[in-house]
Design a protein that fits this description.
Blueprint (H helix, E strand, L loop, with lengths): L1 H23 L19 E5 L2 H4 L12 H6 L17 H15 L3 E5 L2 H4 L10 H16 L3 E7 L5 H7 L6 H17 L5 E6 L1 H9 L24 H28 L2 E7 L2 E4 L4 H24 L4 H7 L8 H7 L5 E5 L3 E6 L18 E4 L1 E2 L2 E2 L2 E2 L6 E2 L2 H13 L4 E7 L16 H19 L4 E7 L18 E3 L6 E3 L1 H12 L10
Parallel strand pairs: 1-2, 1-15, 2-3, 3-4, 4-5, 5-7, 6-8, 7-14, 14-15
Antiparallel strand pairs: 8-9, 10-11, 12-13, 16-17
Helix pairs in contact: 4-6, 8-10, 9-10, 14-15
Bound molecules: 1-deoxynojirimycin.
Length: 516
């Protein structure tokens, strides 16, 4: 009876989706079957999280305050005054969580290290043995279950002490601070961790922290945001510059002192949207190129070719920091793989030759391009919970094709891809997340198309393993394959968790809801 009901509701739901997308979208997706066997045997299928978003235990066992602990405790800084003090209480429940990873059948898990848990005061204090023990336990237990840890060293959280002393990433001193932290990670965990990401989304972090002023340390200037101090035109560029050099210095250290013995690989993860032209003219195509340059190539051109993209240099002139000769050499080829967090696609707006860019909210660094989510009143895809995110599966393929052309010899990992519903779900929708399943099926199909055309994609991580603290949007944004009850902390697999498990295990067979 229950099965019949589920099947019936799935049938009507799919019908509804089909009708809706026919009406709403300009570009229709082909229905595609996606199976595990379409990917190489050694392909990585994992799930991802980050320390501040799930760990909690914000002042336990020697951990000290980081920028997010302090920021979220100021009234008004996050949507509903929420913070990561407890988050998913993963600090106390990691064994239970690792069991759930095993249940999913993933061969990898992407996590990040909380800087203040192992170095409470950066270079200015002692190493915290309890912090090391916590991550050692996680790593060991993952490996026992055959799950490869993919470790991000720095995912948005940094010691408050460094924020206070230096103004965070605005200062070149952060380069040495970061290298000190990375070295400790390589030293203590590198015998078992073989896949590293130095930094998560420097392009997003710097825009939110120093251009729009919505992330700590809340710096920005008009018209991009209203902060007590900052300069939205130059500070995000300076902060990213320091992050890129910090990355390259840490990689040099890894390659010289750790890689030969430990044999791991190291990359960096950036956020990358795809951009479509807003109108069918030359200016719009140029706006697409500028959008890519100012958002994506900004990060990967230096790491692969040693310098910022020509378009950024042309438009930003003196505002764009310069790399010294030594830095160029240090940066060039400083990643073993490209890490991509991909969620959505936008129309690229030309802010020079059109009046399309009405809102500064949607402008990229420098303000030369903007982005829109609809054209002629027709949205580019169905809505998601994060502001501006839309479901556009074909964007995955186009993005990967472009990355493969620009960086032909570099492997790619999709380090995040995931769905959150536009409204907080209740009732049956809470666990029966058909839209999320469809999201992953269509994005995976799109990714596999790019791979057939030559994209060197080696792995795919779902964001996220479980619902967690979505930064300033808090706990109402739910990306999880697992639902987390905020009162009891109980984790319950959504239908998508079962679908992903089934997908990974099934090989040839396509995973449909009816197999549950
Ligand atoms: C990217 C970030 O790395 C992650 O922390 C965040 O939760 C997701 N995007 C979803 O917005």
């Amino acid at each position: 009876m229950l099965l019949q009901k589920t099947l019936l509701s799935f049938f009507f739901f799919s019908l509804l989706l089909l009708v809706q997308s026919k009406h709403n979208h300009e570009v229709e997706e082909e229905e595609e079957v996606v199976t595990r066997s379409m990917f190489p045997d050694d392909f990585i299928f994992g799930v991802a999280t980050s320390a501040y978003q799930i760990e909690g235990a914000y002042l336990e066992d020697g951990k000290s305050l980081n920028n997010w602990d302090v920021f979220t405790h100021h009234p008004g800084n996050t949507g509903r005054g929420e913070n990561g003090d407890i988050a998913d209480d993963h600090y106390h429940r990691y064994m239970e969580d690792i069991d759930k990873l095993e249940y999913l059948g993933v061969n990898a898990y992407r996590l990040s290290i909380s800087w203040t848990r192992i170095l409470p005061r950066g270079r200015f204090g002692e190493i915290n043995p309890s912090g090391l023990m916590f991550y050692n336990n996680i790593i060991d237990n993952l490996l026992l279950k055959g799950i490869e840890p993919f470790v991000t060293i720095h995912h948005f959280d940094l010691p408050q002490e460094l924020e206070d002393r230096y103004g965070g990433w605005l200062s070149p001193h952060m380069q040495e601070e970061y290298v000190y932290f990375a070295k400790l990670c390589f030293e203590k965990f590198g015998d078992r961790v073989k896949n590293w990401m130095t930094i998560n989304e420097p392009n997003v972090f710097t825009q939110f922290a120093y251009m729009r002023g919505t992330f700590p340390p809340r710096r920005c200037s008009l018209p991009f945001g209203n902060c007590s101090a900052g300069n939205s035109d130059v500070e995000p560029l300076i902060a990213a510059h320091n992050m890129l050099i910090a990355h390259a210095k840490a990689v040099k250290l890894y390659r010289n002192h750790f890689q030969p013995k430990q044999g791991g690989i190291v990359g960096l993860t950036a956020n990358a949207f795809h951009y479509e032209p807003y109108t069918n003219d030359e200016f719009s195509y140029q706006a697409v190129e500028r959008s890519y340059a100012f958002n994506v190539d900004w990060i990967f051109d230096p790491l692969i070719y040693g310098n910022y993209p020509a378009l950024m240099r042309k438009y930003l002139g003196k505002d764009l920091p310069k790399f010294s000769k030594e830095e160029v050499e240090l940066l060039k080829g400083s990643i073993d793989f490209i890490g991509i967090n991909h969620y959505s696609t936008f129309y690229a707006l030309d802010c020079f030759n059109s009046n399309d860019c009405t809102s500064t909210e949607n402008r990229a660094i420098g303000g030369y391009t903007g982005r829109a989510i609809a054209r002629n009143g027709i949205p580019i895809g169905d809505e998601m919970g994060v502001f501006g995110f839309r479901i556009v599966p074909y964007g995955m393929e186009k993005l990967l094709n472009r990355l493969s052309l620009r960086y032909p010899n570099t492997s790619i990992y999709i380090t995040e891809n995931g769905y959150c519903p536009p409204n907080y779900q209740e009732g049956t929708e809470l666990l029966q997340d058909f839209t999320r399943i469809k999201f992953h099926q269509t994005y995976l199909a799109s990714m596999s198309k790019a791979m057939r055309k030559g994209a060197k994609v080696k792995g795919y991580f779902v964001w996220s393993f479980m619902d967690n603290f979505e930064w300033i949007q808090g706990y109402n944004i739910t990306f999880g394959l697992y639902y987390v009850d905020r009162n009891t902390m109980k984790r319950t697999p959504r239908l998508s968790a079962k679908w992903f498990k089934d997908f990974i295990a099934n090989g040839e067979k396509s995973s449909t809801i009816s197999t549950f």
